[in-house]
Backbone:
């Protein structure tokens, strides 16, 4: 086990997992706040096409995934802003178009499904130095933006009408949240994979809010839980591989995160019960 | 006295359907106006059009003497939406929600100043929730959540307040706390426009009622007694004396000094 940790590929994997665990819940908190918890999942599907285009053209799958996911995020934001009732249908078209397009293009490129699978479910132990630099750089952008613009992003996500009347440029911040979510998807791509990325954006937030009372504490706790799940899941998978038992790190991270939620949930239930038992003033 | 809101021949269509047909409304500085009417009369749409949330189909809206599309002093406008917006997917403390009301006055990437924090504390005191600042908004009663939204608008220290149905579904103690808060605002010289189905304990504060019906103004003047004095069992506020209520908003201003 200790032997395994001294390998450079394991060190890169740990760094990639840690920054993913920080960035995904940071933007995820805003997504959950605006009830767009599944946006990350949708953008993950869209990004598959970007990866496949990279495999087809020989360009970097990571950067093409960033570009395609950002384009998808902007498209989704435009649809959302128009507020059409068919919005979720339009989103579904975009998501499944992205996934199907990705699988189709991968086949055209003559690449095996196994190659695509690295991106779909993560392949954290095969992260190259270039991939790692891109991942760390993009994660840093996401974390800094999420923390530095907290008052603005909080207000816009909390109550769009109020923020608009207060003169906040809400269209800019809405787009920013969508773009940051798209960037996070590509950050998490190598760690947990495009199909499981949303779990790391949402589950730590859901776990944190069982015990928190404020937005800031939820955001902080979710980031701590995200890092713990990402590092814990990776180490657990590495440990099991010495037993030997082959488990993929991506799903292990997600399942560990879900275990955290399962443990926190009864606590949240108890807290909500206690609040409800305090007598409320009857309505006029 | 200067005019805060000037609406001329306002037409608003929603999804192609006319909701307001030629509404005129002039609100001078310092007045307390109740926009009343049945559901679907267009009273909320009027407020949303004046605050820029609803596009104007035809007509003219001016705030503080500037046409809406060239108006930039949004920190002077406080908006209190219907209560639905108070709780969201992630817990937020009362202090955080109220502090977001300072945003119009804060610069991006700057920490909150002493003045920001003082405004938040003051706003919470005015609505009587000073001791609940650290609590999660979602654990408060509906009336308390409404007061949090008023405190949020208050924290921005605006000159005009728009409140959309602040008393709807709110318990009586909160309605009374609301009335006290609005009285403080009014005494500080704020202009208040209130959308209401029924006024309850707010009735004594109102110095002008504008009643809409089917998108048109059908009454503009003294508060309508049958609507204003909605419930005789409610405790009246001390401010209401026994002199006859004045009809003109300008008279009301002089009375307030």
Residues:
């Amino acid at each position: 086990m200790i032997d395994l940790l001294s390998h450079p590929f394991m060190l890169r994997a740990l760094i990639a997992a840690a920054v993913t665990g920080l960035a995904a819940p940071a933007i995820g908190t805003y997504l959950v706040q605006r009830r767009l918890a599944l946006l990350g999942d949708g953008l993950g599907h869209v990004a598959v096409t970007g990866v496949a285009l990279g495999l087809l053209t020989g360009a970097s799958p990571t950067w093409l995934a960033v570009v395609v996911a950002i384009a998808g995020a902007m498209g989704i934001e435009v649809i959302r802003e128009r507020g059409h009732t068919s919005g979720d249908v339009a989103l579904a078209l975009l998501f499944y178009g992205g996934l199907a397009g990705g699988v189709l293009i991968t086949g055209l490129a003559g690449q095996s499904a196994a190659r695509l699978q690295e991106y779909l479910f993560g392949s954290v132990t095969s992260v190259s130095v270039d991939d790692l630099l891109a991942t760390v750089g993009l994660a840093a952008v996401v974390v800094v933006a999420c923390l530095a613009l907290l008052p603005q992003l909080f207000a816009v996500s909390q109550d769009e009408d109020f923020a608009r009347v207060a003169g906040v440029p809400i269209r800019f911040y809405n787009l920013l949240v969508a773009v940051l979510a798209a960037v996070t998807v590509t950050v998490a791509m190598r760690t947990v994979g495009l199909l499981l990325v949303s779990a790391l954006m949402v589950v730590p937030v859901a776990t944190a809010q069982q015990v928190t009372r404020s937005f800031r504490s939820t955001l902080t706790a979710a980031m701590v839980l995200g890092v713990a799940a990402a590092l814990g899941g990776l180490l657990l998978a590495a440990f099991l591989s010495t037993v030997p038992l082959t488990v993929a790190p991506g799903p292990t991270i997600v399942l560990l995160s879900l275990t955290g939620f399962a443990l926190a949930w009864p606590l949240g239930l108890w807290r909500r019960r206690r609040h409800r038992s305090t007598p409320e003033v009857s309505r006029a | 006295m200067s005019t805060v809101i000037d609406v001329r021949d306002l037409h608003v269509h929603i999804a192609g359907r006319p909701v307001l047909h030629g509404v005129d409304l002039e609100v001078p500085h310092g007045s307390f106006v109740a926009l009343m009417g049945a559901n679907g009369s267009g009273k909320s749409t009027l407020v949303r059009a004046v605050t820029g949330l609803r596009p104007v189909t035809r007509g003219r809206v001016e705030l503080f003497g500037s046409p809406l599309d060239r108006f930039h002093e949004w920190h002077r406008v406080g908006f209190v939406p219907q209560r639905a917006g108070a709780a969201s997917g992630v817990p937020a403390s009362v202090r955080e929600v109220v502090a977001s009301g300072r945003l119009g006055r804060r610069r991006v990437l700057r920490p909150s100043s002493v003045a920001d924090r003082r405004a938040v504390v003051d706003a919470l005191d005015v609505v009587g929730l000073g001791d609940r600042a650290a609590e999660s908004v979602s654990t408060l009663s509906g009336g308390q959540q409404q007061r949090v939204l008023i405190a949020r608008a208050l924290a921005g220290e605006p000159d005009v307040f728009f409140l959309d149905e602040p008393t709807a579904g709110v318990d009586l103690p909160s309605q009374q706390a609301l009335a006290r808060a609005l009285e403080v605002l009014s005494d500080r010289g704020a202009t208040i426009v209130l959308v209401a189905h029924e006024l309850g304990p707010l009735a004594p504060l109102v110095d002008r009622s504008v009643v809409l019906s089917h998108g048109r103004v059908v009454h503009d003047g003294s508060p309508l007694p049958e609507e204003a004095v909605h419930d005789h069992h409610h405790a009246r506020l001390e401010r209401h004396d026994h002199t006859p209520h004045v009809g003109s908003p300008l008279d009301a201003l002089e009375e307030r000094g």
Remarks:
- Helices of chain B lie at 43-50, 94-99, 114-126, 142-155, 172-187, 225-228, 249-256.
- Chain B touches chain A through 48 residues (CB under 8 Å).
- Chain B has one domain: 3-256.
- The first helix of chain B runs from residue 43 to 50.
